[in-house]
Amino acid sequence: MKLLDEIMAHNEEFVEKKEYEKYQRGKLPNKKLVIVSCMDTRLVELLPKAMNVRNGDVKIVKTAGAVVSHPFGSIMRSILVAIYELGAEEVCIVGHYDCGMASLESEGILSKMRDRGIQNDTLNTLDYSGVELDQFLQGFSSVEDSVKQSVATVHNHPLLPEGIPVHGLIIDPETGRLDKLVNGYQ
Q1: Of 122, 109, 95, which is closest to residue 179 (Cα–Cα)?
Q2: What pLDDT tens digit does each residue of the chain (186 aa) get?
Q3: Helix, strand, or coil here: 143?
Q4: Residue 181 falls inside a structural domain
Q5: CATH code of the domain covering residue 49
Q6: Residue 126 and residue 173 share a domain
Q7: Residue 88, by phi and psi: left (phi above 0), alpha (psi -120 to 50) or beta?
Q8: Are strands 166-171 and 90-96 parallel, antiparallel or unpaired?
Q9: Are residues 35 and 127 in the same domain?
Q10: Is residue 57 part of a domain?
Q11: Contact 36/63 with Cβ under 8 angstroms?
Q12: 90-96 and 33-38 as β-strands: parallel, antiparallel, unpaired?
C-alpha cells in the first residue's frame, strides 16, 4: 500500500470513530502566541510538550531551520496574519540544536537536484534570472545567530504592531530543554 493510501485509510477510520473530537478547539490561539519552529521531525510532539501548549493554544509555523529569511516572504506573512487576524500578541522563534540547516551547503543540494534530473540549463536560467541559488539553498553556521537574526527580522518589520514581544529560544531535540536567547519583554 502506498503512503497516501495508508493515510486515507487511517483518516476514514479516524473520522468514523470520531477521534477528532478530543482535538476540537477554536481557531483563535488561547495563549495569543505564534511560534515559528523548525520542521525537524523530532519537534512534532516534543516542542508543544516542552512549551506546555496544546491543540488550540498557539499558531505554529514550520519552516526549515525556523528561519524568517525574507521580510516579505510567506513566513512573515503568516506571522502578520496570526497577529492581525487571529489575535496573537506575541511571537516566538524556536530553533534547535543539531539542526540540519547548520550544516547545509548549497552545492550539496544542487548536486542532489542534478542527480534527480534537474538540468544544469534550468539551474543556469534561474541564476541568470536573479535567483541566487547559492544563497537561497545555503544553511547557517550558528543556530544562535540564526535565531537572533530571525527575531530581528520580525521585531524590526515595518508592519509589526508596536508592543509585540518577539522572543528567541533554542530547544534541545533530545531533552526538550529550552534555552532563552532573546527575551522579547526587555
Answers
A1: 95
A2: 799 999 999 999 999 999 999 888 888 899 999 999 999 999 999 999 999 999 999 999 999 999 999 999 999 999 999 999 999 999 999 999 999 999 888 899 999 999 999 999 999 898 888 888 888 888 899 999 999 999 999 999 999 999 999 999 999 999 999 999 999 999
A3: helix
A4: yes
A5: 3.40.1050.10
A6: no
A7: beta
A8: parallel
A9: no
A10: yes
A11: yes
A12: parallel
Which residue in this structure is represented by grid cell 476540537?
Answer: 24
How many distinct structural domains can be found in the chain? 2
Enter the C-alpha cell of residue 182: 532573546
Residue at grid coordinates 529550552: 178
CB 96 within 8 A of CB 43: yes
Q: DSSP letters of 102-125?
A: GG--HHHHHHHHHHTT--HHHHHH
Cell 511571537 locates to 91
Question: What pTM did the predictor assign?
Answer: 0.90
